[in-house]
Specification:
By secondary structure, this protein is an alpha+beta fold. It contains ten helices and 14 strands.
Length: 362
């Protein structure tokens, strides 16, 4: 542990695994967010702070806290990877004021000392955990998997010299009526089925086989995404093992051609922030009910091998048919700006959410 007093009442602490600082780090979000809006996964954060997370072996963490009069007012983690000239700053929370500047200043100093050229954030250590910052639509309760933060955070990053390095959107779609037709997606589905493609929902008993196939597709298709880092198959399986209990398998699709997995889609019911709190009987009942029938679904991941152009439209059509039967709203979540999926079923978009990633040369 190392601390630096910045004034008579303010200090910044760079800590390791000391219990007091771990607990203070975990406690700060609860003073910023309401019970309905807090998206903190405390157990995951604790495992990272204690180097017990499945991904801990991939990086080094520099964990920091800012105190004013012995009260935590800001927190953050700088993550460095071997042989990477970028540093990743995340798990960022700060009360209003200049506290964020103190975190960024320390992170930049560490980066210069380690010959790191650029800071990117917010990135909670990994592509596989959470990255990006929400910038609008704060009047709605967060949906499951949404990067969520205080509305003033964008100003804090820009004020400290960061520039926008990437933009994503989430589309909130109206209920698709039974007689609504998307001719393009319908035509694509018919064409691919005639060519011998199979688009199916996996059985629960085949969960591990399905996730292993999805792993192969993700590491190939997402490799050019900002902040992407490849991880081992076994670590991927650990990270996503909980999906077995929360996904509605009818909202998961695998596309096969000549027996090879060439595309996938994962949708989950919207549990809001129920998955991140303490596990209770009430929470388990809520998960069970929503898994069987939800009013809102999250279109979370989709990928198609490049040589199977337009297969994404065909997969989307199978999901449209499921949503019609369920009479449900849905989110097309975290779509990279410029991707074709940003404009899928455009006439049904009710709201659009924006998320940014920032960068700064150091």
């Amino acid at each position: 542990m190392k601390d630096e007093r910045l004034s008579d009442s303010i200090k910044i602490v760079l800590f390791n695994k000391e219990e007091k600082y771990v607990n203070d780090f975990l406690a700060l979000p609860m003073s910023l967010y309401s019970k309905e809006n807090i998206m903190q996964n405390k157990e995951e954060e604790r495992s990272l702070l204690l180097s017990q997370h499945p991904l801990s072996k991939y990086f080094v963490l520099y964990k920091m806290l800012v105190y004013e009069k012995d009260q935590v007012v800001a927190r953050g983690i700088l993550t460095l990877y071997p042989e990477d000239e970028n540093g990743y700053f995340g798990f960022f929370e700060a009360k209003e004021g200049d506290y964020a500047t103190m975190l960024f200043t320390l992170a930049e100093k560490i980066c210069r000392d380690k010959e790191i050229k650029k800071i990117i954030g917010p990135v909670s250590s990994s592509f596989w955990i959470t990255y990006r910052q929400k910038t609008n639509q704060f009047g709605y309760r967060p949906y499951t998997s949404e990067p969520y933060n205080m509305p003033y955070y964008k100003e804090l990053w820009l004020k400290n010299g960061f520039e926008v390095g990437g933009r994503w959107v989430s589309n909130y779609y109206d209920i698709i009526q039974k007689d609504d037709q998307n001719e393009k997606c319908n035509a694509r589905l018919s064409a691919f089925l005639k060519k011998g493609y199979e688009i199916v929902s996996p059985k629960k008993k085949n969960f591990e086989k399905c996730m292993s196939e999805i792993y192969d597709l993700i590491v190939e298709l997402y490799c050019d995404f900002p902040v992407f880092k490849k991880i081992d198959r076994k670590d991927f399986m650990k990270l996503f093992s909980s999906f077995r209990t929360i996904i509605d398998f009818s909202m998961v699709k695998m596309a096969y051609y000549n027996g090879e997995a060439v595309g996938f889609f994962i949708g989950i019911p919207n549990y809001s922030n129920s998955l991140y709190g303490k596990i209770t009987l009430q929470m388990l009942i809520e998960i069970f009910i929503k898994r069987r029938r939800s009013d809102v679904y999250i279109m979370l991941y989709m990928g198609v091998k490049k040589e199977h152009l337009s297969l994404g439209n065909a997969i989307t059509q199978t999901i449209i048919e499921r949503l019609k039967k369920k009479k449900a709203f849905c989110y097309g979540a975290l779509i990279k700006e410029g991707k074709v999926t940003e404009h899928y079923v455009e006439d049904k978009i009710k709201e659009q959410y924006e998320y940014l990633l920032y960068e700064k040369m150091v």
